[in-house]
Design a protein that fits this description.
Largest sheet: 5 strands, mixed
Helix content: 55-70%
Structural class: alpha+beta
Strand content: 5-15%
Number of helices: 11
Strand order of the largest sheet: 1-3-2-4-5
Order of helices and strands: HHHHEEHEHHHHHEEH
Distance between the termini: 46 Å
Shape: elongated
Number of strands: 5
Length: 252
């Protein structure tokens, strides 16, 4: 019934959009004429129900196009924060012609599945610049792990961050300070300096800015990726991401 209520005026608009103004003016119709008109449209739909599905498909396509266009505008307006914020870890080829941005959470099972796929894509392509956005959304353990990773990056640099990042992606169970200390010690990092940094305002600022950016981009789950002018939500295998990357390259 709900579809019937909106499909009638929609079909009427499509039918008479190109007609001369004098040929059809629904506002000038009497109540009796309107009822006759609606009955004719209803009869047509009953005889040709496929028209409804065609109209719905066209509507969905137009909505998707509008959403994609709006998304492109948002990405363009926030390009610096997305692709070159000055604090996120950058891997792959720093001079690559395509930048792949990932919003991730260490406790996210799909992020863990995506990690080797992203590595495969980046290493196999050789011309992708990878940006990791720490986006802890799955509780206190996620927050502690992100703070630890960001603190490592700020204290010990890019290479140390990558080591810690990989370890955290495979970590299960307890995420206590003693366990994080052992991670740092095992990697020959300054555990005292990193743990002391975890609650620093500079670490909090990274997380706050990433969350604000995610809200602007309508990103609420992980993993989420940005490639040039498009947001990709959820896990994607390397070959599918590679296909999208090549499409973006071809578009120039």
């Amino acid at each position: 019934m709900m579809m019937y209520r909106w499909i009638l005026p929609a079909l009427a608009a499509l039918t008479f959009a190109t007609a001369p103004a004098a040929a059809f003016d629904i506002s000038a119709m009497s109540d009796e004429d309107r009822e006759t008109f609606r009955a004719e449209i209803r009869a047509y739909l009953l005889e040709n129900p496929e028209v409804i599905f065609e109209a719905v498909q066209i509507l969905e396509e137009r909505q998707a196009q509008a959403q994609a266009s709006a998304e492109m505008d948002i990405i363009a307006a926030n390009a610096e924060a997305i692709f070159d914020d000055g604090f996120s870890w950058i891997g792959g080829n720093p001079d690559g012609d395509i930048t792949l941005v990932e919003f991730m959470d260490y406790r996210c099972g799909f992020c863990r599945r995506a990690a080797p796929e992203v590595e495969k894509l980046v290493e196999g392509d050789g011309n992708i610049r990878l940006v990791i956005k720490e986006f802890p959304i799955l509780g206190e353990a996620s927050m502690s792990m992100s703070r630890f990773a960001i603190a490592t990056h700020q204290v010990a640099g890019d290479a140390a961050y990558k080591q810690v990042h990989d370890v955290l992606l495979s970590m299960n169970g307890d995420v206590s300070a003693p366990r994080l200390r052992r991670v740092a010690t095992d990697l020959n990092l300054d555990a005292d300096a990193i743990l002391a940094r975890m609650d620093a305002p500079e670490v909090t600022e990274v997380i706050t800015r990433n969350r604000a950016l995610a809200q602007v981009l309508n990103i609420s789950g992980t993993p989420s990726f940005i490639v040039v002018d498009e947001v990709l939500r959820g896990f994607l295998p390397a070959d599918e991401m590679g296909r999208i990357v090549e499409e973006k390259r071809d578009q120039g």
